[in-house]
Amino acid sequence: MQNFEPLPQARFHVEVEDGVEWAVARARRNWFVLPFLSIWLTIWTVGGIGAIKALIDESMGPRGFLAIWLIGWAVGWVYAASTIAWQVAGRSQIGVYGGALVYLWKMPLLSRSKRYDVSAVRRLRAGRASWPWSGFMQPSYPPFFPMTHGSVQFDYGGRTVQVMPGLDEAEGAAIAEWLSKRLPASAQTG
Q1: What's the CA gap between 27 and 11, in Å, rounded?
Q2: 152 - beta bridge partners?
Q3: What CATH number has the domain spanning 12-27+92-187?
Q4: Tens digit of pLDDT for each residue in 77-101?
Q5: Contact, 173 vs 126, CB < 8 A?
Q6: How far apart are the first and last CA of the chain?
Q7: Which residues contact 88 (CB under 8 A, 6 or more apart)?
Q8: pLDDT of amino acid 102
């Protein structure tokens, strides 16, 4: 008797909301990054609170450097907090509704929706992972970070649009095939 590897399930599903079908994927969780960033964010927050108190304290001398450092602190804090929020509660979804290819991502306190004219969508396809590794070291950033790559791609005008981050190429191909049945022939996979 042969022992085969179990077939992994796709990390997206199709759900119907208000009569519209959506391919929905929860954000990929990185179980190395989540605890690390959570501890780091706690320490970073305590340091920032101390720096803010020092900035407010008028008995201190010049505080220009501290003010500049706090700008960097805020950027780091937002990066870490949004990465944690995305991995814990983020989700992305794509569907065809009202003559548009609609892409939506949501996470606590933040969401964004984009509508693409279906007549201008071309070469719908799976996106290739741009990271040389996978598994526990594969990053999972919120979709608004520039280093986020989507598993579903299509050409829209002179640009390539990448959506549905955190999925594998095979999952991207399955979503592209699912979408192609709902889009005009001009958008068919290529």
Answers
A1: 9
A2: 126, 163
A3: 2.30.29
A4: 999 999 999 999 999 999 999 999 9
A5: yes
A6: 40
A7: 27, 29, 34, 108
A8: 97
